[in-house]
Structures are given as structure tokens and as C-alpha cells.
Amino acid sequence: MEDQLVIAGRAYRSRLLVGTGKYRDFDQTRAAIEAAGAEIVTVAIRRSNIGQDPGQPNLLDVLPPTRYTILPNTAGCYSAEDAVRTLRLARELLDGHALVKLEVLGDPHTLFPDMTETLAAAETLVNEGFQVMVYCSDDPILAKRLEQMGCVAIMPLASLIGSGMGILNPWNLRLIIEQARVPVIVDAGVGTASDAAVAMELGCDGVLMNTAIAQARDPVLMASAMRKAVAAGREAHLAGRMPRKLYAADPSSPLAGRIGS
């Protein structure tokens, strides 16, 4: 309970953040998120109904804001203007909710972030009072600039969105983590539980994922695995791994005092 994730002044027990897209239906969405133990769930405003269409099923009926922190995101936006407009709509739909996830994509093929547009959108949103969690490249300089602008969490990709390739550049992630004074949450590219554990062992404050759970053969079981992996990785980070040693055998049992020696 003492080791909590704090974002924009609010504490969370879970360090696993989960998306709500790509599930078979709302029932599977709810079951997977419950199995993940997530407290923050991210919602693509352009793809999910949270009140824009009164005639369609509302995601908030199965994931009520009284139980979860709803994190509206700008998935599908390719310009700062579109992203800002989308999050202004989200704030209206969620009664003034300020915590948001900003992502501005560069192209539909890779979904790599357009950092020029991301920086522009972040500046506007912060100035308008939004608490911005920002998806970004794993560039330590740009990550620091976003923090200096006032973003409340930095969310570098591990690899491309939906790729499941895991952490491709742990060295850049380490640089971002070492300099950050706000939470660093890996966003995008996680494929399985070991990827989540590695991210946490590196010192990330949390992991956000969607496809890795939703597209698993058994999403609910994978959500449970991810929950355990994030917790195990966090504990391993806090415990501190033993140093790596090349050709320096060190037996677990001492040699001194052996019977017969």
C-alpha cells in the first residue's frame, strides 16, 4: 500500500493501465479489466461511445467512472488541432475531467508519434488546465521537454503500437527514467507478460497496454498474467538485482567449513 503510483496528485495501487479497444464485446472488456486489476482505463474518444451517441451502448455503463479513472485519449488524431479538439470534447462529456492521454500520430502505417505536433498539442492543453499524460518517442531530450512543459506523465513507446515486439531500446528508456521527475509509463509494444516485467525492472512507474491483452487467445487470462508481471517487475526493481559478473563463479553455499575439508 505504501508503494503507490501517483499521477497528478492522485494515488493508485495498480501500476497496470489498460485500454478498452479490440475486445469481442463489452462483457469481455469488463472481465479483462477486472482480471488486470487496473484502476486507470484509457478510452479512444473517436472510437468509443461515452455519451456522444445516446442511441448506442455506452462504455461507461460497464466501466463506471465511480470505480475507474477514465483516461480519454486521442487515438486516431494526426494533428495538434484534432487532438486538442478531441480532448475538449472529452472534458465536456466527462463533466470537466482534466486527466487525459495525448497521442498525435505521424502516419497510419507505423502509428509512430509525430513529435512536432505532440509538442504543440501538449503546450496548448497544459495552458488550458488539462493534466496531460503524453505518448511519445523514446527520445530523452523530447521527453524532458514535455515534462518541462507541464505534462504529468511521460509515456514512451517500447515498440510500435500493436506490434507486440516488446522493449526494443532499453537504453533510451533508462535515460528517460533517470532524468524524469514525473511518472514514466511504457506505452505501446508490449506483447506478453515478460515484456511488462522487463519494463518494470528497468524502473518504469507503470505500463499501459491494450492489444497484448485484447488480442491474446484468452484475454482474461492474459490480463491476469500481466497483473502479476507488473507486480513482480516492480518488486524486482525495488529489491535491486544482483550485479552481473563475467567468469566470477560465486557458489550459493560457502566452501569454508565443508565436511571433509
Strand and helix map with partners:
Blueprint: E1 5-7, E2 10-12, E3 16-19, H1 26-36, E4 40-44, E5 69-73, H2 80-93, E6 99-102, H3 115-127, E7 131-136, H4 140-149, E8 153-156, H5 170-179, E9 185-187, H6 193-202, E10 206-209, H7 211-214, H8 219-239
Parallel strand pairs: 3-4, 3-10, 4-5, 6-7, 7-8, 9-10
Antiparallel strand pairs: 1-2
Helix pairs in contact: 1-8, 2-3, 3-4, 4-5, 6-8
Describe the structure.
The protein is built from eight helices and ten strands. The protein has 261 residues and is an alpha/beta fold. Strand 9, helix 6 and strand 10 (206-209) form a beta-alpha-beta unit. Helix 2 (80-93) packs parallel to helix 3 (115-127). The radius of gyration is 20 Å and the shape is globular.
Task: Please give a quick description of this structure.
With 261 residues, the protein is an alpha/beta fold. 36% of the residues lie in helices and 16% in strands. Helix 4 runs parallel beside helix 5 (170-179) and helix 6 runs parallel beside helix 8 (219-239).
